[in-house]
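Form P-L/3: holo structure prediction, ligand manganese (II) ion.
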Amino acid sequence: MYAKNAWEKYDEKELKELFDFCEGYKEFISNGKTERECVKLAEAKAIEKGFKELKTFKTLKKGDKVYAINKGKNFAAFIIGKEKIENGLRVLGAHIDSPRLDVKQNPLYESTGFCLMDTHYYGGIKKYQWVTIPLAIYGVVCKKDGTKVDIRIGEDKDDPVVGITDLLIHLSADQMTKPASKVIEGEQLDVSMGSIPLKDAEKEGVKANILKILKDKYGIEEEDLLSSELEIVPAGIARDYGLDKSMVAGYGHDDRVCAYTSLMAVLDSPKVDYTSCAILVDKEEVGSIGATGAHSKWFENVVAEMINLQDEYSDLKVRHAFEATKMLSSDVSAGVDPLFLGVNESKNSAYLGNGICFNKFTGSRGKGGCNDANPEYFAEIRKAMDDNNINYQTAELGKVDQGGGGTIAYILGNYNMNVIDAGIAVLNMHAPMEIVSKADVYEAYKGYKAFLKLK
Ligand code: MN
Ligand code: MN
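OUTPUT (holo model):
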């Protein structure tokens, strides 16, 4: 309501800075198609800015730049502040998993001259959006001898892509009468892998040929797929969107757009009073559970390690640190789509171009499952945004009883820290091609930097 379109305030110098920043982001999501790829990119960026892995430190002092990785899927970067860690951190937390199709453990089969690969979708998707588009295969295959094979097929220009077929319109009389949730069903999301039979194969020659290709290129057997983690994602790079290039179209803005801006805000803030942190978590789209999700003890363990390296360790200091921590749960908001106005309540909606978006609460129905941020805390944040000339807006996820969703905010809130959701508005959320405004990406980055300076 009180928000303004950010584009109107920029001078030429700032516009250039904004577009340059977004080039870095486009490169990040073009290559960071999975949580593992995002961790690799985050680590490389951190090293480039002088960060070192936590386990290489014997003591920690102010100004030290530290990072830690959990199982290749969960990343945290810290800059040690002037204040002791015990006095609290300034945390930006985003997730680096995105909706996709995971390959099953026994995936390959042959039918009518094709080899196909069976998948199980991950996160909330409209299944019909994932057919008839070029797809890529990413992930790891872990062998019994302890070696791990990295797979990345479908991105280089000479690489083949894969995909999922849909029925031709000419024969779709029955299909077109089905509800959208049934037009394409989960078990139909099988990827076409090939169609040349291996000469002299006893049975299932096409599948045998695909297995031969996997063996020749990656040294893996069919049985090795039992211990694999392969993800099917849209192929291709992020692109400028709109004739004015004001937006970015790409896969995985939710939530890599907040992950990138949060990470860069920390990497670009060398001097801080309070220890600043960007934590990038996995598994948000499936409930944040498990070893690499926001519910994991890992983050707490890392902070405990750091307190131990800074000071005489005590459990109480760790608890003090968490209680005094201020956090932004950096996650995307649902942007108002001009073609679907009915789902929003216009005064409390996120508009592309109006800057970083705060959600006091998320959840569904009667705010079910939400972290409802304290207004005392949001007042502090508003001041930080205004003092730093950041365009910001507030929103909720659609009109009351329209639907809903959650973020990691409540999980860290359980430590009794102050947390509010703050992110970037997205169109087409969870579709293979999502849209964000470059102005929002830039305002979020600057807003996150302003937050890290919070007293
Ligand atoms: Mn999200
Ligand atoms: Mn999501």
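COMMENT: The mean pLDDT is 97.
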